[in-house]
Design goal:
281 residues, alpha/beta, Rossmann fold, Pantoate--beta-alanine Ligase, Chain: A,domain 2, 6-stranded parallel beta sheet, 3-stranded antiparallel beta sheet, 9 strands, binds adenosine monophosphate
Length: 281
Amino acid sequence: MRILTCCSEAYAQVDHLRRQGARVGFVPTMGALHEGHLSLVRRSREDCDATVVSIFVNPTQFGPHEDFSRYPRTFESDCAALRDLGVDFVFAPSAEELYPAGFSTYVQPPKVAERLEGKCRPGHFRGVATVVLKLFHIIPATAAYFGQKDYQQLLVIQHMVDDLNVPIRVVGCPIVREPDGLAMSSRNRYLSQAEREAALSLWKALTAAQSALSSGQRDARELEQLMQTTLYTQGADRIDYAVVADPASLEPVSQVDRPAIALVAAHVGKTRLIDNLLLQP
Ligand code: AMP
């Protein structure tokens, strides 16, 4: 496994592989890797001839009062895990490498970015879309692997790639959870033992909505109310949103007569967590 920090070197390596006819899979991450990330790597290894993982904590997708400076950075153990999985290249640029002095061009994210995370985290998807498009140019891969954990982000990337004719296949992969249901997240490292319990309120809210739907409650507002109540009674400190939406557009739905996506974002102590579940009527 080779670790690359320079954009032109990364491009040259991947371009060389592609010219030889190799399928190259790409997994963009911010590091602090867990089984969720590793599931994307395994999928890329199955589908492709070579796999590139990027590790970059992208400053432009964090708000001024968010956790950029304290975001967990575990580069050595990340590389050990990726080496064990048979990853070919790790691309780990510095912030100056991706955003040199004078950098001033940004991607205007698609409409699907406007709601939910886009409302709660102004500028977040602009930063995500910009860094991902840059990475797609630096790593001209065949396919890129993203988790459904960041459901809206996956839609944003899919729309960007379609709208801007980016020649890469975007593959969405299932959420990996702890045995009790908590979605794996690098931010789970922030949680104390008591907060870890309270963090399960997100999964409890989502499964409560699915249970109510299965028992015949198809009214989306009622399901949202149930998620809110469950979040608060099970330990969330503050809710950013708890919604039932169309899985393609993220527009609100009134009745769940076909699959809908339930999405939640809530704060537990100082930690902001998100999760989602596809509701099946
Ligand atoms: P991050 O390092 O948080 O930027 O995440 C990198 C990629 O891993 C994104 O595509 C995430 O959606 C994905 N990911 C994060 N957590 C999980 C999880 N629990 N299950 C599946 N994919 C995940």
